Every structure is written in structure tokens, then in C-alpha cells.
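Translate sequence into C-alpha cells.
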Amino acid sequence: MDPRERLPLQLKSLASRDWQAVTIGKSGASVWRIPMGESALFLKADPSHELSEMASEVLRLDYLAEMGFPAPRIVDQVEGDGFDWLLMTEIKGRDLTHLVDEPQVLIQVLADGLKRLHALEPANCPFDHSIDRRLHDGKANIIAGRVDETDFDDRHEGWTAQQVYDWLVANLPPETDRVVTHGDASLPNFLASNGRFSGVVDCARLGVADRWQDLALACWSLEFNGGMDLVHAFVDAYGAKFDAERYRFYCTLDELF
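Result follows.
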């Protein structure tokens, strides 16, 4: 059903506004942009579930606000009648999929955004996204039937979620360079304004992890949108060396989320 049919009382004043559905990305939540004069608000609705990432996103947006990092600020949070609702401010700019035809700008903006995020002090970040933690969460998703096996990458076509999990356990890479990571560093989740990095969205998986948690998903998103030439140019701009082992591992780990 349309979540708007269950709009809670606290958000009823938005019902008469122009709701613009946001369809980019693979989140299971519904998201709308709601113009408010010269700016806008974003409203996210997620079916209530003990494994919903909504509560995690609220905590992480609060953390990013404390750090002064560009990300949405929370306006309201409401739970009830089968849905969790999150009302947020708009971040200036457009997601990086709009820069695919400007590859040099795209690469530099993504590299700059990740370097800024990874420069945050991990000791001040309370969210653990180590491999052990993520495997635990991934296993919970498998048990709850929340892993979409029909949406696996070509490399894992025909695999079951349990086979993905077993492969991960058998191919653990070392975690030697832990930083504050976004957790889902794909092009739709990073924004640019006037050719410069302007912020991040969809932050429910932010936490301290090996930096290849982000570099792998950023590389996968670039490969999907423009091929491996973009990947290698991005890794150079970020200041790293391509790591095929970590690239495959963290992309495979993402299948469980």
C-alpha cells in the first residue's frame, strides 16, 4: 500500500504539498522530495521491522550533525501504524549519477567526498561496522528473509544468500586501515553542487570499517556507470592502490544488505 495512506498526525500538514517520488537507489524505503518555497524537505517511510535501518540512520545523522559534516539534518521522526517516518532537510546539489557525462569532475568529487569522510576521527565514531559486525547483521537479514536473491550481481547469479554468506566467511580479508565509512558509497548517495562535493545521504550504514568498505562500493558504482577506466582513475584520485581481493569481498558483502 501507499505509505501516504497512513501519514501520521504529526506530518498531516505535508499532505497538501507537492510530493515528488525519489526513485533512484535500491533502498526498500519510500522517499519523497517535498518543495517548501525555495528549499525542500525529504520524507522517508520504511515499513516497521526490527531490522529496519531507520533507527540506525537517525543515530548516524545525529553523529554527522555533531561532526559538522554535510548530510541531512533531522526535522522529525515518527513511528506508528506500520511505518517509520523520517523528515529531513535537503542537501544542496544533485547526486553524482548526474555527472556521468563529466567523468573527470565525477571522479574528483567522489574522491574528495570520501577523503573528507575518512578524515573524521574514528575514535569519536560510536558505530562499529567491522566485518564481524556486518556478517552478524547479514546473517540476521538472511534468517528474516530480507535478502533479495534475485537482485544479486552477475557474479553471484543463481547463488543463495547462504552461499554468499559462506563464501564471505571463507574469504575474510584483513582489516588493517579502519576509518569512518559511509557504508554504501555508491554514486546516488554522494551529492555535488557546482562541481564540488556537497554532502551525503542514506547514511544508515555509516560506521568504522576498513576504508575498502567504501572504496569497493564506489568502484563498483563507477564500473557500472562507466567501466573500469573510471575505477582506476578514481582510485588514483583518492590516493590508493586497487585491491582486487577487498573489492570482491566488500561487493559480495553488500549482497546481504
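Note: The CA atoms of residues 53 and 142 lie 15 Å apart.
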